[in-house]
Design a protein that fits this description.
The complex is a heterodimer of chains A (511) and B (357). Chain A is built from 21 helices and two strands. Chain A is globular, with a radius of gyration of 27 Å. The termini of chain A are close together. Chain B is mainly alpha-helical and 357 residues long. Helix content of chain B is 69%, strand content 2%. In chain B, strands 1-2 form a two-stranded antiparallel sheet. The two termini of chain B are 16 Å apart. Classes of the chains: A mainly alpha (511), B mainly alpha (357). Chains A and B meet through helix 1, helix 6, helix 7, helix 19 and helix 20 of A and helix 6, helix 7, helix 11, helix 12 and helix 13 of B.
């Protein structure tokens, strides 16, 4: 095993060396750093050309320059990094890189997590309803999303989601036909996802459509969208609902201890709403992160306190509830900042931006600034989710179908286990194994690759850095981009193989 | 009675098997696959629509020296703006029913015919899709099959070689092409993209070949004295053809999006040549004032990619030997009735049907 790991690591280094060398030579052909000087009419043109040639070492052949670049990068191993300069702006590459990396991580993390969660969820439901209306709808939808060019979607999103929503906020009322239509669509989606006989589906359709219509009517009548917020009562009620739903899925409602610990956690969360409002007044990022940790600890402690022979299950259930509760409370506080945010002079009542990663000149509390970042994240995240969601759905559906046809699922059913146990414990967990092999690859691709999304929405992340350095003929930032993305890709490939072997005992690593 | 029934296998299962057996009776593997594919509704609709797009795109403005039926016959057509703002003259349900008019897809600000431009872009996209798909498939199959069949050092080397191509950014390659050849020729760009987009297929083919080479028919061919190349391409390749075809279609739909993305970023096709991505890039700022300039090229990209994806799905279902069609309720009932009749006859004669049950 150790032998295998070492060999793979060595060959990965070799791959990176060859690839970076190729890119260096190719990029050197593609860019011309002297282009602007050749056409200039300055009297000291020749002197300028000579100066820049000396600066960039253009009199040397590109392999020699590659070696000197490589020497600088290799210095990182002994603590003397020299990643080179972005010579047009005279900035250190390490500086450019770190700011670009942070922006990209911010953009990609939320989108990836959401796309995976949503994709897996929809994929599983679609597989369980194989060859039914819901399944066909999802198949068609995922094909459609798969076939959309990013930039095309992005323009549509800007036009309809951002500009359309901002226009809508002017009076913030929803017309009755629109309410009816949305309610019907929501009802059909849930009704067809529910399964069972027609009567049950019809009931689910009715309940979900009526609930949607009531909520939309309330939102429209009170102009809730102009000054949104939950309040303690809604948090308590939805917390109880979440507690029931999470328990039903994770351990089953028969497990009373798990149910009670989930409910306890939900009640504690709702009770903490009021004192937390004072704490939130002096919020910082570190404080919020600390509170999130506290929430998780509370969940685990409550689960263990209810005890019983399987404390682990109770603790897991109540921890999930605790995470949901803290998201609810956090969201509620953010919503309270909505009004000051959208009425501030730089926003001017049009809160959904179409470009950039923050509003320049916006000042305010932690909540207003966070809200501003979130509204900027909205459109690019939607664009990224729409496309990768389709892939995950298809993948999870196929893998779930594969597992559901396995003999061990038949055995589990034959033992008389409940359908929930069969699906959640025997089928669902195993169906996630193939997913573990594509997630690392996808993350690697996203890290370097939201090139188009970043470009359209004006985020200066890794993709923008790459394009800009190509346009400005700056080889150093270009090369560091290729090196980092390449290294992450190769490592992710390797990791995917290892993870697969670790999760599935039928696979042996001996290549 | 019910106790007896519980001992029998699920009657539904039995009937489904009977229907399935009847469907494949006396057919070769190729015929079975073809029949399954033809039955796949999504794939057939996709194929029809794709054919329609191909026919309209190639005949309307002509292909190369062959003239088309669209007025002017070329793609540089322009004229005075007909409707205010150059709105499309296409009427699906107008005063006199369906009519194309002179500018069915509208005109841009200087009166260029959007229909001709879009059709030209479609031709380019289709051509690039086919070229990229073919080249990538050939390279991927060769490298994957050699790596999977010979294993060992050659496999290691070829797979690391594949990794190098995985790391190479496509945009740099596009930029290099643009630099060397001035303006980027569509065919050249397609060939280059084909040369760098094979790694995924090579990995899949390698995996398939690794499994296939352990099968008995390979041993049999070896014992019979067949050469390595013959075993690989005569005996093993046909067994891997399903994976290859399906992934070629996926590669093609990815290729059409890749080409548009490259042209959009300015590293793909450039003026005077045009492609769908280039059209969207040029007209995206016109979305608020002349949305049709933006809609048509985008819709055609989506249509082509969607059709290819559906065809690929149909092919995958057709090639998958474990794939079982769910019989309709009617077919199940019919078979059930036939089985019941046979049983009744057998019972009246007084013999036991040895194959039943």
């Amino acid at each position: 095993m150790l032998n295998f790991v070492l060999r793979r690591l060595l060959s990965s280094v070799a791959v990176l060396l060859v690839a970076t060398f190729l890119v260096f030579v190719l990029a050197d052909i593609a860019v011309d750093p002297l282009e602007d000087l050749r056409t200039s009419t300055a009297p000291n043109k020749d002197a300028q050309i000579a100066e820049r040639t000396a600066l960039l070492g253009l009199d040397q052949p590109s392999p020699v320059r590659y070696l000197s670049w490589l020497g600088g990068v290799a210095g990182c191993a002994v603590g003397k990094c020299d990643l080179g300069m972005a010579w047009r702006t005279n900035q250190e590459v390490s500086h450019v890189l770190s700011s670009a990396l942070i922006v990209t991580l911010k953009l990609v993390t939320v989108a990836t997590v959401l796309a995976i969660v949503l994709g897996v969820l929809v994929g599983v439901v679609s597989a369980l309803r194989q060859y039914e209306g819901f399944d066909y709808g999802i198949i068609f939808l995922s094909f459609l999303l798969y076939s959309l060019p990013t930039f095309w979607v992005a323009v549509l999103l800007k036009q309809w989601v951002a500009i359309g929503f901002n226009d809508f906020l002017r009076d913030a009322t929803i017309s009755p036909p629109a309410i009816g239509l949305i309610a019907a669509v929501v009802g059909i989606v849930f009704g067809s996802a529910a399964g069972g006989d027609w009567r049950r589906r019809f009931v689910v359709f009715g309940i979900s459509a009526a609930a949607t219509a009531a909520a939309l009517f309330y939102i429209s009548a009170t102009k809730w969208l102009l000054d949104p917020g939950f309040g303690p009562l809604v948090i308590l009620v939805s917390g109880l609902g979440i507690a029931y739903a999470v328990t039903a899925i994770s351990t089953g409602l028969r497990n009373k201890r798990a149910l009670y610990s989930a409910i306890t956690t939900a009640v504690i969360g709702a009770a903490l709403w009021f004192p937390l409002q004072f704490v939130f007044q002096s919020a910082t990022g570190a404080l919020i992160a600390g509170l999130a940790v506290v929430a998780v600890v509370v969940g685990i402690v409550v689960g263990y306190a209810w005890g019983g022979p399987d404390r682990g299950q109770s603790a897991r259930t109540s921890t999930i509830v605790a995470i949901f509760m803290s998201l609810l409370i956090f969201g509620d506080r953010l919503m309270q900042a909505w009004r000051p945010y959208s009425e501030s002079s730089v926003i001017n009542g049009r809160p959904i931006p179409t470009i950039g990663s923050q509003t320049p000149g916006l000042t305010g509390s932690y909540w207003v600034v966070t809200l501003d970042q979130l509204t900027h994240l909205l459109l690019p995240t939607l664009a990224l989710i729409l496309i990768s969601f389709a892939g995950y759905t298809r993948y999870q559906r196929a893998s779930m179908l594969e597992v559901m046809n396995q003999d061990y699922v038949r055995t589990a059913r034959a033992k008389g286990l409940t359908e929930r146990t069969v699906i959640m414990r025997h089928a669902f967990r195993n169906s996630l194994i193939p997913l573990a092999t594509i997630v690392p690859l996808d993350i690697a691709a996203l890290l370097g690759g939201a090139v188009i999304t970043e470009r359209i929405f004006g985020w200066s992340g890794m993709g923008t850095m790459f394009l800009r350095s190509l346009e400005r003929a700056e080889l150093d930032p270009l090369m560091i981009y290729v090196l980092i993305v390449g290294a992450v890709t190769v490592l992710a490939n390797f990791l995917a193989d290892l993870v697969y072997a670790a999760l599935d005992p039928r696979i042996r690593v001996n290549a | 009675m019910s106790a007896v029934e519980q001992n029998l296998p699920d009657p539904g299962d039995h009937l489904e098997n009977a229907i399935e057996l009847k469907e494949v009776e006396g057919l070769s593997q190729g015929q079975i696959v073809f029949r399954r594919f033809v039955r796949h509704k999504g794939a057939m609709i996709g194929l029809m629509v794709l054919l329609g797009v191909v026919i309209i795109a190639t005949t309307s403005i002509g292909w190369g020296p062959i003239p088309g039926w669209w007025k002017g016959g070329g793609f540089g057509g322009s004229g005075a703006v007909e409707l205010p703002g150059g709105r499309p003259t296409l009427q699906v349900w107008g005063e006199n029913g369906f009519s194309l008019g002179n500018y069915p897809f509208g005109q841009d600000e200087i009166g260029r015919d959007m229909f001709a431009l879009t059709m030209r872009g479609t031709q380019q996209s289709l051509m690039m899709m086919v070229v990229i798909g073919l080249i990538a498939t050939v390279i991927g199959v060769f490298i994957g099959s050699f790596a999977g069949y010979f294993r060992g050092r050659l496999d290691q080397f070829l797979m690391r070689f594949t990794d190098v191509f995985l790391v190479l950014p496509t945009i740099v390659v596009g930029a290099v092409l643009g630099k060397i050849f001035g303006s980027v020729n569509a065919l050249l760009l397609a060939m280059t993209l084909g040369v760098i987009s094979w790694p995924g297929l090579a990995r899949l083919v390698r995996g398939d070949f690794l499994a296939l080479r352990e099968r008995e028919f390979v041993d049999a061919a070896k014992v019979a004295g067949a050469s390595n190349l013959r075993i690989m391409f005569k005996h093993m390749l046909p067994n891997a053809i399903g994976v290859i075809i399906v992934n070629t279609t996926l590669l093609m739909s990815a290729a059409i999006l890749l080409e548009t993305a490259l042209s959009y970023l300015g590293f793909g096709i450039r003026r005077p040549d045009i492609s769908l991505g280039l059209l969207i890039n040029e007209y995206q700022t016109a979305f608020a004032t002349r949305p049709w300039l933006f809609w048509w090229p985008g819709l055609i990209i989506v249509t082509i990619a969607l059709c290819i994806n559906f065809i690929g799905d149909g092919l995958r279902d057709a090639f998958d030997p474990r794939q079982r069609r769910i019989p309709t309720t009617r077919a199940l009932r019919r078979t059930e009735k036939a089985a019941a009749k046979r049983e009744a006859r057998a019972a009246s004669v007084g013999t036991v049907d040895g194959t039943g049950g």
